[in-house]
Amino acid sequence: MRYTYRLRPGATAQAALSAEWGRCRWLWNEAVHQQKAGHKPTFCKLSKLLTEARARSTWLREGSQVAQQQTLRTYALALQHAYKVKGRGRPTVKRLKNTLPSLEYTVRGFTIRDRRLRLAGGITIPVVLSRELPSEPTSVRVYRDSLGHWYASFVVRRETQPAPVTDKAIGVDWGVTVTATTTDAAYDLPHLGHRRRCAAELARVQRRMSRRRRPRGNPPSKGYLRAKRQVAKLHKKATRQNTHDARQWARRVVTDHAVIAVEDFKPSFLARSTMARKAADAAIGAAKRELIERGTRAGRKVVLVPPAYTTMTCSQCGTRAKERLGLGVRTFRCGDCGYTACRDRNAARAILATVERDRAGADDVRHVNTSLRVSGCARSEPEIPRLPAVGKR
């Protein structure tokens, strides 16, 4: 698990972290240029090049070799994942203006003593330990958010608490009007609209930021930076509210159900549609991530079902409608058995029926295709195999 704490770096520590991030960012961009030149930079090749570069450059030797190696390792893994997963973009250049600092250290690159984080390179930062670490951390990620706050995310081992014994099952369908519709109405996650409530204040601050923007080539004014910080603060407030609601909802669902059938819905395409603002407010991705993570941690059976034809399939008789349902049609009616129900509720029941019908045995997370029987299970690692969805939803 990851335990995240707030850091309180001084001016000297912030300058040292920024300088370290500058070296790591330069190495990342050099690896991207090598990949664009036709080479396939593996971690072994990048490590050899790093050794040669540190021997030539005093600027690189001033930084931590642990952080620089971890940057290249992250790049190599991202590139390998891009080759394996269809449609996954390759790593791109990290620009100073658009990228937030993020440094990773292994166990030989940091220590915690007297509530202070000591990083390789002589950087010492006070840590706000709001809770004690359950075990010795194996790695740490030091990063800065859009407000300029620094955080340390430690990877630790924690004993899992046994989940209550139950035999209930639940199906989850994602939407925009209601974030999550389940087979049991008591466990629905409503659309709470945190971003919509601060839309007026956000628009006012964004107009202020636009008025104070200087022409290109001139340094930003203090008023512009102050307005930009207020915009970031409003965005982060809504994000934290969505994350909190998703965690509370996922905890209730995982505690009361042994089998959780989740629609494998990817909301990224909604960002390019007219529903982009409402989809961002619904935070489907955050709720889905919390549900899967908590379910696998509690030892529940979490099954990801492709969304193909879930809206068009009757949950009572299994008959598939011949025509697609428009988004304006909110009630599903089966032409064979006459079953009538809410569109999203029927989809959630169809998702659960798919899992029960296929008797999908899995230890943690796997995909179930509605038309093909698949054996085996997938891991809860980032390399989860994705079954192709047949047709459109």
TrEMBL record:
One of its GO terms (molecular function) is DNA binding. Residues 293-351 form the Cas12f1-like TNB domain. Keywords: DNA recombination, DNA-binding, Transposition. Residues 154-265 form the Probable transposase IS891/IS1136/IS1341 domain. Pfam families: Cas12f1-like_TNB, OrfB_IS605. InterPro entries: Cas12f1-like_TNB (IPR010095), Transposase (IPR001959). GO terms for biological process: DNA recombination; transposition. In the C-terminal section; belongs to the transposase 35 family. This is Transposase. The lineage of its organism: Bacteria, Bacillati, Actinomycetota, Actinomycetes, Micromonosporales.
